[in-house]
Amino acid sequence: MQAPSYKVARFINKQLHALLQLPNTYTSYNSIQVIQNLTKLHINKTTKLMTLDIKDLYVNILVNEVLHITKTLSNYNNINNELSQEMNSLLEAVLNLNYLQHLNKFYKPNKRIAMGSPISGAIANIFIQYYENLILKHTLETKAIIYYNRYVDDILIIFNSTIISEEQITR
């Protein structure tokens, strides 16, 4: 069963991809790409590997934070103010009308995004990429993290253990 906002969510999903032009700097869409990147790395005895999984990704993303991020990215990408406001209004309506069905019961996420909506994946990607670009860029420049790659909510990190520890990364 489709939510009442399903068609609008599909429309906004396409528009967000076109307007926000996410760089996907740290995102991979297939294992071949990851393997090609890994073969270019210089590994030594102080190099460590760790994998992470973002637990309950969708239900941990706050609607208000997503709206703030999309507005910030719209400004950064010089999107017309009127268009930006319209998209954010539609996005807010879709995210607030969101609900999910499980075992014949309906649930409305409280201030968070629902799984299964056509826009949920894009919203999660926008959310994560925003923070990756804020936080990771500096760490990668220091060479503490040698390689970082994400596929949806699964993360692969290769790091120099003489510069940064696992505990520092997971904080």
UniProtKB/TrEMBL annotation:
Cleaved signal peptide residues: none
Pfam families: RVT_1
Annotated ranges, domain Reverse transcriptase: 1-171
Domain of life: Eukaryota
Protein name: Reverse transcriptase domain-containing protein
Native organism: Coptotermes formosanus (Formosan subterranean termite)
Lineage: Eukaryota, Metazoa, Ecdysozoa, Arthropoda, Hexapoda
